[in-house]
Please model this.
Amino acid sequence: MTAIPMALLAGLLGLVAGWAARALARRHCQRPPVPRWPLLEAGMGLVWALLALRVWPSHPAALPAYLVLGFVCVTLAVIDLGSKLLPNRITYPALPVVAVLLAASLAEHDLGRMVRALEAAGLAGLALLALALVSPGGMGLGDVKFALVLGLALGWLGWGAVAAGFAGAFLLGGVVALAALVVLHVGRRAQLPFGPWLAAGALLAVLASAPLRAT
Model:
C-alpha cells in the first residue's frame, strides 16, 4: 500500500481514536475539554494521517508506535489544558507500549536505534526531572514521565529529532507564557500547563525529521 491510501486509512482510524481520547479527557477534566462538535476527533484523524504520510513510506513497521505516540500526545495535551494534570493512567503504560512497538520493528533496523531511543528517554527524563526539582511550580512530575515517552520516540529517529522536539517545546511554551503575561496579564507565578507544548514539539519534530532509513 502506498503512502496516500495508508494516510487516508490512518486518518479514518484516527477519528475512532479521537472518540476514545474524548472519553479519556472527560474522565480527567472538570469541564468538557473541547466543544461538542467533533473537533478532537478531526484533530486526531489529521495527526494520524500526517504521521502515516510521514512514516509509512520509509519504515512501515514503526508506524504503529508513532500512531500511539500521536494518540498520547493529543490526549494528554487536551487533558493538561483542562485540568493541568498528566494522568499516570496514560503516561505509565505509554512508555512500555511505545517501546514494545518500536522493538517489534527491529527486523528492519539494527539494535543501535533501540539503544539510542532508550538513551534519549533517560536523558530527557533526567533533564526535566532536574528542572522540576529546581522549579517545582514550572515543571511537574507528569511532564517528566511524558518526557520519557517523547524521548524514546524521538531518539529512535535520531538525536536531531530529540533536540528539535524539546527545543520546540520550550520555544512554544515560552512564547505562550509571554503572550499570557503581556496580553492576558497573567501573573508571573501562574502555573501554565507545559504538556501541550511538549506534545506539539514532539509531533512537529517527527513530521520534520529526516526520512527513516535502515542503518
Observations:
- Residues 3-28 form the longest helix (26 residues).
